[in-house]
Here is the input.
Amino acid sequence: MRFAVRIPTLADVIPWLLLTFLVLFPKGGVKFAGIPLTWGYLFLGLIFIPLALLRLVRLPMRGSPLTIAVFASLLPFQFLFLFSIWLNGDDGPAVPVALLTSFIFLPAIFLGVFPAYLHLINYERFRRQFCFCILAAALWGIFLFFYHPLMGHYIEIPYLTVNIADYGLLETTKHIDRGGYLKLISTYNNGNLYGVATLILFPLYRLLEPKAWKRNVVRIALVLTLSRTVWFGLIIEQFLSLIVQLPTILGSFPRIRPGRSLPQIIAIGATVCLVLVGLLFNGNGLGFLFNGGLGGREGEIPAFSQQTLVPTVPVGPIAELVYASVLASYGIIGLLAFLLIFFMPVILLIFNPWLAQTPSRRAAVKGLILYSIVASIDGAILLIPVLVFYFFCYMVLLHGLPGESTANRPAAPHLDAENGFARSVLT
Here is the structure.
C-alpha cells in the first residue's frame, strides 16, 4: 500500500511561520540597544525583499486605485515624521526605527507585496492556523492568569514566549499588578497590548471560528486582561454589530422588531456581565472603572490645550493616549495627517460601499474601526504586533482573506498576469 506524502510549499510554510511568530509568539526574540528584534518581524524583513523584487520585476508600478489611495493617505504623516526627525531630532534610535517599521515597512509589505500572493494560500489551512494561534494564545494567557497567584511566578520560555532581555522581569516592568491578580498577558507580556492587539483580529476570529466555546474562551481572556480599554473595546465591538442592524429596527418603527439584532443585544448584556465578573479580580473594585487619573495617563491630556500647528519638539514614542500624544509631538497638522490614516477605511467605504459586501471584509473593517476608537484611550500603537494586525486587516478589507475567492475583489485587471507568475515561483 502506497502513501502519498505531500511536500509543503512556500505558500504553506510562509503563512504558518508568520502566524506562529506574529500571533502566537509575538515577543520571542532579542534586543539590540534596547530595540526589540522579534522572530516574526525578522522573518517579515527576510521575505520582504525577494517577494517585493518578484512583484516589481514582473509588474512594475501597477496597483489597484484603492491601494494607491491608501498609500496616498499614508504619505502626509510619513513625510511629517521624517521631516520632524530631520528638523527637531529624536529621543533615541528606537523611536525612528519604530516609526519607520510601523508606518513605512508594514504598509509596504501588507498592502503592496502580500496581495499578489494571497491566492496561492490554501484558505481552509490558513483559517485553521489563524484560529488555532488566537485560541492557543488565549488559553496560555488564562492558564498563566491563575497559575501566577498559586505559584508566585510566571512560566517564561526565553526567546519564545518572552524576549530574552525581558526574561524574569515581567512582574516588575510591565505594570500588570491589579492587587492580588496580575493582568492576563499571554505571550504578549503586557495585558493592554494583548487585549488591544487581539481586539483588532477578534471580529475576524468570530467569523472564522465555528465553535462557540472557542470564541468565548478568547472573550474571557480579553476580560481577564483587567484593562478598562479592552473592556470598553469589547462592548464597542458588540455595539458595532448592533449598528449594522439599526436600519432594520428603524424600518419597523414605531413597532419594535429586534429580529436579527436580538443576538447582538444579548451579547452586549453578556459582555457587560463578564466585565463585572472581571472586577472581582481587581483590587480596586468599581473605583477602578471611574479612576479620574486614567490609569496614570492624565499627564497626556494637556496636549489638547497646549497644541502647536507644526512639530516643534524632538520626536518621541507615541504614548498610550495615541491622539493626544501625536498632537503633542506633531502639532495640529500632524494630528490631521495621522487621523487620515485611521479614518481612511471609513472614507473608502463611504465612496465604495461594495468593499464590505463579503463577511470577511466587513469583519476586517470592524476591527480597523474598533482600533481607531480604543486608540483614543490606549492604542499601544508602536508596540509589536499591533500595527501588523492593523495592516493585515487593511489587506483583508482591500483583497479578502488569503486563499479566499477573488470573484468580489476590487477591480484589478493586472492580477491575472501577476497571479500566473507568482504561482510559478511559490508553488
User: Anything to note?
Assistant: The two ends are 27 Å apart (CA to CA). The chain has 14 helices and two strands. The beta strands are 29-32, 35-38. Residues 322-351 form the longest helix (30 residues).
